[in-house]
Design a protein that fits this description.
alpha+beta; 13 strands; Deoxyribonuclease I, Chain A; globular; 6-stranded mixed beta sheet; about 20% helix; 7-stranded mixed beta sheet
Length: about 240
């Protein structure tokens, strides 16, 4: 494990938490369809999602292109949520990776980098307490190469998921629902979306779904929603449990 932080222990057990909402949102470092970087616009979308937990991808920290801002921290302050950030790419003090925002305490987090020939990827795991219950909430951003995605899923992601109960996995997987990568994941998790209506990319004219909220069999999905917006090239996906 590359990094980890613990507050009051990281065990997850007992019954599933009560009703809650989980989402995923690739924010493209805040760059909207108009080419402007505007984190306040991203924050407005996150508030509209009305989710208890959100996995974010393509998050910058101390990067020139986004004004040297700690984007996860900025969005946490703007939305009144807890946050943690895990970089996959490091260039001196400039970092780029994934983040989790939560309305509930983040009890523990850890990250695992996933080596790539191009852009290094990262899997972020958090343990979050909701209404007295703890769940494992993961987020990641998989690469553009099919073989690399399969390797990361089979060698890193699935072994971590199998070792943790009450799991939700979110992220931009860069893969379609009927792909071999998703078939591998569905051996251990369920896809929250059972229809072909939850299209997420590109945001101005969605044609495909490459963004996912997957869950352990014990969770029951009550509804799914995709929000149309122009703050990023991906539309966020929200699932109510």
């Amino acid at each position: 494990m590359d990094e980890s932080r613990r507050n009051n222990g990281d065990g997850v057990g007992g019954n599933m938490p009560g009703s809650f909402r989980a989402g995923t949102y690739n924010i493209r470092h805040g760059k909207g369809l108009d080419g402007r970087v505007d984190l306040d616009r991203v924050a407005q979308v996150i508030v509209k999602m009305s989710a208890d937990i959100v996995g974010l991808q393509e998050v910058d920290k101390n990067r020139y292109r986004s004004g040297h801002i700690d984007q996860a921290g900025y969005l946490a302050n703007a939305t009144g949520m807890f946050c943690c950030f895990a970089p996959g790419l490091r260039q001196g003090m400039a970092l780029y990776g994934n983040a989790v925002l939560s309305r509930h305490p983040i009890i523990y987090w850890e990250s695992q980098t996933m080596r790539s020939l191009r852009e290094r990827r990262v899997l972020l795991r958090t343990v979050i307490e909701i209404k007295g219950r703890r769940i494992n909430f993961f987020t990641t951003h998989l690469g553009l190469n099919h073989k690399e995605r399969l390797r990361h899923i089979n060698k890193i992601i699935i072994p971590m998921i199998k070792g943790n109960r009450n799991t939700i996995l979110t992220g931009d997987f860069n893969a379609y629902p009927d792909s071999p990568e998703l078939q591998s994941l569905q051996e251990v998790l369920r896809d929250s979306c059972n229809s072909h209506e939850e299209l997420t990319f590109p945001s101005d004219s969605p044609r495909v779904r490459i963004d996912y909220v997957m869950h352990s069999p014990g969770f029951q999905v009550s509804s799914t929603e995709v929000i149309s917006q122009d703050a990023s090239d991906h539309n966020p996906l929200i699932v109510s449990f």
